[in-house]
Each structure stands twice: as C-alpha cells, then as structure tokens.
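input
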Amino acid sequence: MNKKLKFLLTRIIVSAILYIGLALVFHLEVLPISTPWWAELLLYLIPFLIVGGDIIGKAVRGIINGQVFDENFLMTIATFGAFGISEYSEAVAVMLFYQVGEFFQTYAVNRSRQSITEMMDIVPEFANVERDGKLLKVDPDEVSIGETIVIKPGEKIPLDGTVLTGTSLVDTSALTGESVPVQVGPGSEIISGCVNNNGLIKIKVNKEFENSTVSKILELVENASSKKAKMENFITKFARYYTPLVVAAALLLALVPPLFAGADWAEWIKRACIFLVISCPCALVISVPMSFFGGIGAASKIGVLVKGSNYLEALAEMETIVFDKTGTLTKGNFKVTETHPVGISEKELLNIAALAEGYSDHPISKSIKDAYGGDLDLSQIRDTKEISGHGVEAYRGNQTIHAGNDKLMKEMNIKYQPCDSIGTIVYVAVDRRYIGSIVIADTIKEDSPKAIAELKAIGVNKTVMLTGDKKAVGEAVAKKLGIDVVYTELLPADKVNKVEALLGELQGKKKLAFTGDGINDAPVLARADIGIAMGSLGSDAAIEAADVVLMDDNPLKIASIVQIARKTLRIVKQNITFALVVKAVVLLMGAFGVANMWEAVFADVGVSIIAILNSIRTLRVKKFL
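output
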C-alpha cells in the first residue's frame, strides 16, 4: 500500500472514530446540558473536514479552472446542503462513506496496475560494456550497435543482441509469461527485458536502446490508455452531460415545490441533497475504464500486449480470424529436404543458390546456406535484388542468377521442370538456364492445432490461412491444423485483397483479426480490425503495425486473450446495467421523499464499491497453456 493510500485510510479511521463518538454522545444525550446548534455543528465539522477536506479543495479548484461538474462538486454541494438543514450526522456519513469508496477504488486500481507495473520493472538501469579492455557501467542508451556488453548472473539484459560467449538460462517470464527459463549460448538471439539466471554471457548489441524490445514494450504500455473503447468514450460523454443535468434537476427539486406549492424548504432541500448524492456517476466513471485496464493487465500476465482498450473490445466481438502460415502457425525453421540438380552436382546447385541468397535473412535463404554448409565467398556477388513474392536476382561476374518460385521462372521466361514435392520449392537458373530445384520443408508448431481447436471451441466461427506456398503445401498444412479456408500462392498485395474481401463479407457486423509475423504482413495487420503480431521472433514492422503482440510467438494464447476480452466486456456491461438500474430506482425514491440519506449513500458508494470489486475479476486469468 502506497503512502497516499495509507494516509487516506488513516483519515478515514480517525474520522470514523470521531463520528461514531459524536453520534453516540448526541444520540444517547449523555451531556448534562443541552448542546447549542453551533457547538454541535463545529464538533461534526472536525471529522467532516478531516475526511473530506481534500474533496472540498478539489471542488474549489475545479470551479476556478472551469471544470465545475464532477463528483467532487456533487459531494461538496450535497454535504453542504445537509449541514444547511442541520443534518450534521448525515453530512459527515456521506463524506465518510464516499471516501471509503475512494479508498476501495484506489486500492483496486493499484491491483489492476500491478501486472503492468511489474512489466515496467523490466527496464534495465545500466549496461556493462567492454571498451578499450575495460568493463564500464553506462546507461543502456549510451551503448552503440556492434559493441559488446557483459551480462552477469542475476542481471537484466539491457539491449537486444546475439550471444558471443557463455551459456546460461534466461528468465523470460516478465515478457512472455512463461516460467520455464530458456537456454542460450553462442549464436543465440537474445532480447532485452529478460533476466540472466546463472551464467556469465557476452552479447554483441544489434539494436540501440530506443529500438530495443524493452523500449518498444514500454512505449506500447504507456500509450495503451490513450486508445479508448467505444464504451469508455460513451461513459465519458455521458458523464459530461449527465452531471450538469442532475445538478439542474436537484436545483429545481429544491426550489420549485417551496416556491410554487408552499412546501417545506428544509424537506425539499434535503431531497435535493439526497438526489445529488444518488446521482454521482462514480460507479460508471471509475469501473468501466478500470475493467478495461484490468483486462489489459490480465493479458500482460500471460505475455500478451494489447495496445488499447478499443482493441480489447474488438477482440471480444471477433468471429473470423486469418493466419499467415510461415512463422505464425509453422515454426519457420526451414530445412532442405530434397535437391534436384540438372546438369550439375548437388553441391554446385546449393553453392549457386546460397550465393544468390547470401545477403538475405529470410528463413528460406538461411536454410539453403545451412544446407550448403561451406564458406561462402560473397565477394563474387556484385549486386542482388529481392523480387517481392517471387525470389531473388543476383549477379556473379557476368552471370545472372535467379532463385525463387515458379512465378519467378515464368516472369523471366525460364523453361523449368516443375517439382511436385510437398514443401517450398526454390527453382534456380543461371543466365536464364535452369539448373535445378531445391525443396524446403517447414514444420508445424506443436501448439498450432490446439490453438485452432480452442478458437473454434470459444465460438470463433471461421478460421482462414493465407500463404504464398503452392496449393498442395498450403492445403496439406490447413488439413493438419483444421483450418476452414486456405488461400495459396499469394503475393503480399494479394493477402491485403483477401482480407478486404473477408471484411466485406462481415459488413462491419463482426470483427476480423489477422495474425502474422513477417515484414510482408505489416500491411495486412494494419488493414484488419485487429492485427495480432508474433513479438518474440516477429519483425519490428509487424509489431509496429499490430494492435496485439504475443511476446512468445505462441498462437495458443490467442484463445486466452479472446476469453479475457469477452470477460472484460461482460463485466463492463454488468457494471453499467447495475449502476444505472439502481441509481434510476433510488433517484425516483429520493425525488418522492421515500429514500433517505443512507439509501443515497448506498446508491452512490455501495454501487461504486460493488462495481469496482466486480471489475477486479478481470484480473483473474484462465489459461489454455
């Protein structure tokens, strides 16, 4: 509990003790002489100002700044009115119980922030960098790309990079929600924000701090609250007009009957004060954004970053989900399984293909280079050009090498021998002479079939897969996964068109999500209602374009985040309905003189506490993992 919350609790306890004492004294009439009204007023003002002085101060500052109509103003006017008609005990009780509600609200908000606050703790305070043979402790943002940093056991990893020396177990739970440490060694890619458990490791930095994983995560978290759900925006607008209206209604209630019907002033002012207490919109203004914030916090517990409550709301309404295949449903760990050289040896075919793909970091390129296994003399290659969705064109001396799919062969008018093997086929040609093909196979992620099954189990009606692979490969993968619809042999632009066509079918009635990980997926992620990116191995462009980021690339978490979103939306609707119904009933009772100040307190503070406690339920996470 922070100092501010402890101070509020202390004031509540002191005020409550004084209030109970005064109530007993005046109710039991233990004083030997009758107490004048002004003495009773002064005595009750002591606990009132102890517990409510800050509320009055906020109301005054709001009036000075032109922001008059808020809950502080309502509480101040209502309690002052109660004092004005000699309802001293009720005035103190209203302010006391209002502050009890504020205490519960602050405590609940702190709990809902806890998951995200823990995530903010992933920021490293320093980096141990090797310079001129010395180990210096510097700020992470002072380290440049290419420098070597040393991570000692127990330290946070400050920057993204590649392990040069040493082996260790790395705790990734702060990012991914996974409790099992990951083994790293020379050549392992490692991301900032994780904790080095046991071994000393040296890392070559490949990203500056401002572009590192930890920096991007913090930016996403900090901006999440600015993107509000439709329900949040509705409640904000509702409160903006609702509060002035109820103040006007209370004023009419206090003035009209005494002025025009000769009614008792004290009675109708009391009703107006009760009306003001009841009408305070705390339950809605607090619980709705807190529910969404709690949902975002629950998502962060399982290693899922949601960039705003509007995307959480959209996830709850999602009924169609589209997947990119490679790196999303499959591991993206391509391996050469077959070679079909024509007129040359297998080693020569792999060498030429590896040279053509030498400067590419694409998984297919890496698999060809791994299959070749020898040292590549890339100085032979004077220029390369990547042809999106087709392959690469490279120049070796006076020769032109083409390596890619059948579309590339057709576009370059190269006669080739079609290969019917299951997998990604790379056709290779030199000076437009076909020299063979290489078959590369990908493997399905262990959790992908279960992820699709779980999505269908929770009511996602349609699953779609998009891939640039041949029809036979795409359909084989889709069948294994239980995907409803598969579109194959697509270029990046084709994927956008397919998603737009699917959005057209939905006609805005339900939401569509797209899940991908590659740089080519960024336009599709941006076009979908909800873009879900694989964050651990995914490209920066995909993470930037996405609305939701899975920090460990596990598609099984999509079902969990959809359930969290639906639960959050369900709780928000419960709070809105409960608060409006109770307030409407008690407002009518107050206007007709049936409700007293205690019932008004319940309609305000009681409803707020119940709604807040209900909102806390968003933090409870049901995992499929």
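quick obs: The chain has 20 helices and 22 strands.
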